[in-house]
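Course assignment 3, question 2. Fill in each field.
Student: A.L.
Task: Predict the tertiary structure for the chain below.
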Amino acid sequence: MTPPVQRVGYRSLVMALAGVCASAAVAGDSPEAEYLTNVRQVTSDFVKAGEGYFSPDMGTIIFQAVEEGYPFYRIFTMPLDGGKPRMVSTGRGRTTCSYFRPDGRKILLASSHLDPKLEETEAAERAALEEEKKTGKKRRYSWPFDPWMEIFEADPGGSNLKRLTEAKGYDAEGAYGPEGKRIAFCSFRDGDPDVWVMDADGSNPRQLTDAKGYDGGPFISPDGRWVVFRSDRKREHYLQIYVIGIDGKHETALTDNDGVNFGPYWYPKGPYIIWAGADHSNPNVRPNYDLWLMRYREEDGRIRPGPTWRVTDHPAADVLPVFSPDGKKLMWTSTRGEKRSSQLWIADFTLPE
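Answer field:
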């Protein structure tokens, strides 16, 4: 939905980007009003919430959130017309990376509820949170690649839960392709976090990346031909945005700078990719996360980077952006609310002219 490292499964990451600031001048010193209107907070009744995705009909969102009384994220759906959130995960274990199938009849999520020592895992996290309250010192965020994390599908209400992955180690960060026939995901099954693709029923897993370091957070392009993902192969914890063919060929870096770039997502109606990033080049300056948009081009059988625009410049962190299926709305995770907790926000979106 996962952190300098916020999800080191990194979809809930609140991390960083540098090097595209020159392009930001295209949008001016305060770009947000050019691209975002009717900005509004969507979630508020959670300790924290984020990594939200739209249903195919755009009437509902699915997301992860932490409630008082339980230490880990759980998965919820919520109507955008003001309806109440509904928990659709089991209620136990770490959960993350939920997604609607394009026909709306199934949802995808990752969960560690089958952990044989789940009570110990929960107790350890509760103890750590209690220690934070006593000392006032918060831990530096680090997403554990829980080896009991597996990918499941379920009906939209959470029933008929079906396990899709059974390989040893972490399997998560899954998302359906445009026709709902394939799922791109991150897996440790070869001992290193890489991007894989499998059929929607969990069969025929196929490895796409094999570089040393973390490759994860993949999304299949609207035409089904490409997969965008993040990787720290160049420098540990300093993520860059990459794209690779669905056949595992023509891998290309779209960013290459001294910052951190994560949470890439395809625009559904044209050659654009959006992501979150911040400048980590100065160790004496606290970086701030903003949203960035790139227009790419296909050339010589590859995806090539193009002009980049800064979409947000709020002093709060803005991360994990996703578009509605019609491309008219943008949803992201932000700390810009009064309580400064991570929550979901939505705005009407306009492309740069």
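Instructor remarks: The domain at 21-349 is CATH 2.120.10.30 (Neuraminidase). Residues 1-28 have pLDDT under 50 and may be disordered.
Grade: pending
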